[in-house]
Amino acid sequence: MDQANGKSELVSTGKPKYIEGLHAEPELNIVPDLHVLYEDNHLLLVFKPHRLLIQKDSTGDFTLFKQACLWLKQKYSKPGNVYLGLIHRLDRPASGIVIFAKTSKAASRLSEQFRAKTVEKKYMILVEGVPQLTQGKCLNYLSDPLDGRAEVHDLEVPGTKRSEMNYQVIGSKSGISLVEVELLTGRRHQIRAQMAHLGHPIVGDVRYGSKAVFSQGAVALVASSIAFEHPISKAVITFDLPDPLHSVRRYWNEL
Q1: Helix/strand/coil (H, E, C) string of the chain?
Q2: pLDDT (tens digit per residue) in 106-152
Q3: Domains of the chain: which residue ranges?
Q4: Is 155 exposed, middle or buried (0-12, 13-18, 19+ CB in 10 A)?
């Protein structure tokens, strides 16, 4: 399997009603719309929309993880709980590709790939202004954004983690630049904080100083591409987000 099918499946089953509990069955056997990008016996790749949590937090809001569990329960008519491994995360205001593991073996092997930094993750963002360099590498040290905002340091200080990413400016117009980012580490708020540190906050990211408008509760950051080794077959899977789901490209094309 050299490349996953680039088509997405929108599973629409009507307006949902929920019962509390991580694996609880929905009333009327209804689950919310889920964009399934790729599925096999071991993997489930889905699209996370802007504003949807990946996992439970203090808000108690519905999550992509629970949505995927409910979808699997309904599709395969499972009477009990389903196994689903959360492998990586994506900030709530962002959107894009998310990988879940359907078996513990797949979860373990995928997690090891993320720890070994062999997974290639690319993001498309819109930033305010025009970066001085058309391509470059950011190396900083980030604090954990416990208060809602990560602090960026040029030198290591206690409580920070080494944070690296490469970026390339694809184009600029109307005071906005389209930038592709390759993450080399995976810190919370990393792209958002490091781009703001460069003086070019992501469009819509008020928390990091953006004055431009993107969409309510969303920032112009899309997890657009991922490449990894299939945990069972060992084939390399490369998946790019389909254009109809790519909010950054839509915004850019309308500028």
Answers
A1: CCCCCCCCEEECCCCCCCCCCCCCCCHHHCCCCEEEEEECCCEEEEEECCCCECCCCCCCCCEHHHHHHHHHHHHCCCCCCCCCEECCCCCCCCEEEEEEECCHHHHHHHHHHHHHCCCEEEEEEEEECCCCCCEEEEEEEEECCCCCCCCEECCCCCCEEEEEEEEEEEEEECCEEEEEEEECCCCCCHHHHHHHHCCCCECCCHHHCCCCCCECCECCEEEEEEEEECCCCCCEEEEECCHHHCHHHHHHHHC
A2: 999 999 999 999 999 999 999 999 999 999 999 999 999 887 899 99
A3: 9-254
A4: exposed
Domain 9-254 classification at class level: alpha beta
d(CA 5, CA 170): 25
Is 91 one of the catalytic residues?
A: yes
Tokens describing residue 170: 């694809």
Q: pTM of the prediction? A: 0.87
Residue 195's nearest CA partner among 94, 125, 92, 90 is: 125
Query: Which two structure tokens, joined as six digits, stand for 91?
Result: 């900030």
Point out the catalytic residue in the list 91, 144, 147, 243: 91
